[in-house]
Amino acid sequence: MASLRPITRLAPRRTHPYCAVHLRRHFATASDIRNPTAEAAATQHQQQQRSDNKVKIVEVGPRDGLQNEKKSIPLATKIELVERLAKTGVSFIEAGSFVSPRWVPQMDNSSEILEHILTKMVSSPVPITYSFLAPNAKGIDNASALLQKHTGAYITQAESFAGAIAGDKPAIELAVFAAATESFSKKNLNCDIATSLEKFKDVVQGAKKLGIRARAYISVVLGCPFEGYDVDPHKVAEIATSLLEMGADEISLGDTTGMGTAPRTQELLKCMAAAGIRNEDIAMHFHDTYGQALVNTAISLERGIRTFDSAVGGLGGCPYSPGATGNVATENMVYFLESLGMETGIDLDAMADIGQWISKELGRPNDSAVGKAVLGARKTEASTSSL
Ligand code: HMG
Ligand code: MG
């Protein structure tokens, strides 16, 4: 972890402008130990690293977080979740999925969610890109019918490259999802990997025609529920290369099962680098089934990755990955990154409130340790200040 240390030492304490409650958080970092020589070296290093300090969080709660819930969730709750998240400072939200409702019934009203985003000017402190999964021609047709109906209601990729801040207009992104093993591809997509890649061409090219970003997931990169731990990282790199050549803007590497460990995360990312895949084209998507998501995040950070997927309240699971639990909680991710002096732009207090609210709505326990601790600390502070 040597290369993370300088960032850690002199990390500026950030107070978020949208933070309703200003609790002073004391992260246990190396900055607590004052050492002038080390500090001088760290200052120099920090200047070099500052531009490298920003982390992009993709909040996947409304899609990955909800898709596996068995009880039908009202559309109003899904929209309220998206609207609440939009106020936290997060700039990427995965909001739904244009998949077969027979396969994933919970995502059936994603059209209504996209239409809401395109027509209702969801308020947010920063511009937001909303992402939707689409695995095939039918998925892109359904999404593009809505996007064409509301042409001009969203910002295109060219406009955002040109630096246009188009009022409150959202950006939209479509995401395909390949698998690193044949067994998982068949279970999740009902076809083999090669056929899935052919189908994704319709989506990626369709997204480009609409002028929007295309994301591409690769699932089970660190362990498959059907084929075990030994997923070939070279196969992952080969699929990633095909997706990038197809026109994907970003590859999200999915540890769907949470079977990933630090050494194997390291090995995977080394293999991606050896295949010529740039860190800025990679996102990491960790499920936290074995509690390794933040350890694997630290390894990824050290290798230069700066985009991470997470879900508020630790929601989530894939219907075709038996036994896998939620995504790493956004609250845990933000707390961890900020303890290292990295900037996420996200209001942790607001995120903790949302985690508590949505867990209650779903009738499940809040799965974010940090979320619960933040709410607990707030309660304690409120009770001591009223004495
Ligand atoms: P299929 O049965 O082979 O498809 O499923 P088909 O082409 O034979 O069509 C069957 C029926 O589905 C037809 O309807 C189609 O119209 C309809 P019918 O004529 O019988 O009434 N259909 C669709 N309807 C709406 N939208 C569509 C669509 N496509 C077909 N896009 C298919 C193939 C890909 C559709 C199916 O396997 C599917 O929907 N799979 C999605 C599974 C899924 O969503 N899994 C969860 C997301 S991935 C994930 O969570 C992992 C991730 O988080 C990363 C990680 O953690 O690793 C991303
Ligand atoms: Mg997932």
Structure characterization notes:
There is one protein chain. The protein has 387 residues and is α/β, with parallel strands linked by helices. The protein folds into 2 domains: 2-48, no CATH class; 55-378, Alpha-Beta Barrel (TIM Barrel). 44% of the residues lie in helices and 12% in strands. The chain has 15 helices and 8 strands. An 8-stranded parallel barrel has the order 1-2-3-4-5-6-7-8, surrounded by 8 helices. α10 (233-246) links the parallel β5 and β6. α14 crosses α15. The longest helix is centred in the middle third of the chain and has 18 residues, at 193-210. It starts with a helix and ends with a helix. The structure holds 3-hydroxy-3-methylglutaryl-coenzyme A and magnesium ion (MG). 3-hydroxy-3-methylglutaryl-coenzyme A binds next to α6, α8 and β5. Keywords: Lyase. This is Hydroxymethylglutaryl-CoA lyase.
List keywords for this structure.
387 residues; alpha/beta; TIM Barrel; eight-stranded parallel β-barrel; binds 3-hydroxy-3-methylglutaryl-coenzyme A
SSE map:
Blueprint: H1 5-9, H2 36-49, E1 56-59, H3 61-65, H4 75-86, E2 92-97, H5 110-119, E3 129-133, H6 137-149, H7 157-161, E4 171-179, H8 182-189, H9 193-210, E5 213-219, H10 233-246, E6 250-255, H11 262-274, E7 282-286, H12 293-302, E8 307-310, H13 330-339, H14 348-362, H15 369-385
Parallel strand pairs: 1-2, 1-8, 2-3, 3-4, 4-5, 5-6, 6-7, 7-8
